[in-house]
Design a protein that fits this description.
Layout (H helix, E strand, L loop, with lengths): L3 H26 L4 H22 L12 H30 L9 H34 L3 H30 L2 H20 L3 H36 L4 E6 L4 E7 L2 E6 L2 E6 L2 H12 L7 E5 L6 H5 L7 E5 L4 H9 L10 E4 L3 H7 L4 E6 L7 H4 L4 H9 L1 E12 L7 H15 L4 E5 L3 E7 L9 H10 L11 H5 L2 H11 L14 H14 L1 H12 L2 H18 L3 H31 L2 H24 L6 H26 L4 H29 L8 H48 L7
Parallel strand pairs: 5-6, 5-8, 6-7, 8-9
Antiparallel strand pairs: 1-2, 2-3, 3-4, 9-11, 10-11
Length: 742
Amino acid sequence: MRALAPLVALIGFTAVTAQAVLMRELLVLFGGTEISLGLTLASWLAWTALGAAAGGTGFRAGRRPSGSGRLTALLEIALSLALPLTILAARMAKASLQTAPAEIFGLGTILLVSLAVLAPFCTLSGWLFASASGLWRVRSGAPDGESTSSVYLLESAGAAAGGLLAAALLIPRLDPLQVSFVLSWLNLLAAAYLLVERAALRLIAAALLTGGFAGLLIPSAAPRLERWSLARLWSPLRIAATANSRYGNLVVVDREDGVTIYENGLPVATIPDQEAAEETVHYALLQHPAPGSLLLIGGGVNGSLGEALKHPSLRRLDYVELDPAIPGLARRYAPDAALRDPRVRVRNLDARRFLKTAEARYDVIIVNLPDPQTAQLNRFYTLEFFREAHRRLEPGGVLSIKLAFSENYISPELAELARCIRLTLGGAFRHVTFLPGPVLHLFASDSPGLLLKRPEDYIARLRSRGIQTTYVREYSIPFRMGSDRMEATAGKLRAQPGTPVNRDFAPVAYYFNSVLWSTRLDRGASRWMQRLASLGFGPVLGAAALSALACMALVRKPGACAALSVTTAGLTMIGLQILLLAGFQAIHGYVYHQLTLLIALFMAGMAAGSWLGLRAPDSLLWRRLALVQTATVAAPLAVCLSFWGVARAPAIPAFGLLALLSGLIGGVQFPLASRIYFAGGGGRRAGALYALDLAGSAAGAVLISAWLLPLFGFWLTALLVSVVSLASLAAVLLRAPRAPAR
């Protein structure tokens, strides 16, 4: 069994490393939004569950499967071929479905593409778990529940190792296809071990495979295939450069008059972009009678720095850009003399962290970032951020933000998003005004009478400062500020009953932005999202409670009780992962680089918990399961409560510990439930329980990330997850065998 253990661990190692690579690929493909990531993760888990359920049909409890070692080897061979082909399929999908360069897909298309692309690899991965469980039972002679639990433990340990190695070595040093070839090589070695019985022939097979992959495929063939497939992904645009930073995947594409930088599939900077640079900077700085200090958050590489320095009173300009790779790439294609100006200081860190730790105060703060299309961007449109910015302003200071808008027709979805941001901004500042147009500029201050409201005031200040501009001109300002347009926009921005405030831990503007994009790309998905948004928390909580009661009433046998426990635990565990990752994003703002590491620590906790669950005596299985279910009910709320304590703690130690403890709960639960499940006999399948675990996770992934979390926030989402887990706890307490009376 010692020789078989690393082969089983390789299943988890392959799955989590492949997930890290493929999720990044699909993040770029689908525009980097967390809703698209949730749909993709749900597709991943659903196909893996289906593979585990279907693959377990040949390994029913109490039967001795024939040829399971050969089947496991064949599955590993198929898996080794599926991973690089899946990466290529993802890149070809955009090339075949896209109608315009860098087009973002609708939610319906995202779901269909992710289901189609991930089906082969994930189904094989789930089937491999069921096959390995049968193989372990045949070779160890252990009972069915113990065999499945042992494979679960080893798979979790392998997943933890894979996550740590991927985060520290593979992903930073190798391109995605090279990583896939490394995984293919390892799985082919495992298959050769299972298929070839003679030691000498095994060594020859290993040498040939290692020579082929290390000598040719990984260093030579993979990079060529990488360049070719990336060119197809971005066609007809021409790639000038690519880079993977700590914060995202960066691609620079050529334009006729410059370049555009994309991060995780979304455009973050166009160089040069004179119109955007002028409008972003001048409208904001003209609000202040004599701006001496400016904090520019993001977007400085498009020419905004040079435009800001045209204001004669400006003495200090701090430019904060989270990702240092963005200014670095920009300098290669459009050197900016403003970066060498002694008044300019560039800060490469999270802007919110900068606001909390910096001692300087500013006359003007400009947020020059894209709309709240992702949870990471949403952090700069929340009440908490606006209050942090308020504390860093001098008396009479001004905060400026912007949103993509419309000159004429303002759709209900666009108005809903703009109202939410306007209301949120008003929660931190007493005075808010706006400038309509294709881009809506919002200005906020606590000083009465400071903000400009008439076009002639803008023009007078522009003249007095002697600023030469191309787009912010005397004729364009009155056009944008026409009385009809100002009145219409003011009406759309006026808060209505039920307009929510956007918060760090209730990122509703991010949901509204997703609805807005869906109206342009997928009307059907948009209507569903709007219907879901119209549901209050009370009805949703009531539906969750009724569903929990129904499940509890239907579960009558111990095996069914164990199955329900595993299913709800799967939903809770994915819920804990999403809460942790979203919490890290909300507090620290850069989960992209830490994603794989946090998942690895979660899986390490799963492995440790599985080890503990396997060692529980048979007489205490039900009692231990009840204790674990109690912890499962409390865990979501406890994680949310812990965010108050870890906000000022070092990021990885604090969240790493939370990930370990969360994984520990799920790890203990599965072996306990598995041993109860298989104790009932009845020809139960080896992969069925694992499939139920993944099915619960799939349901949780889509419900929590795409609906509950952005709409209801962290605390109410955690409460809903706890209510679902409560059904399993009640079932365990009600259906547990009673100890005989003495």
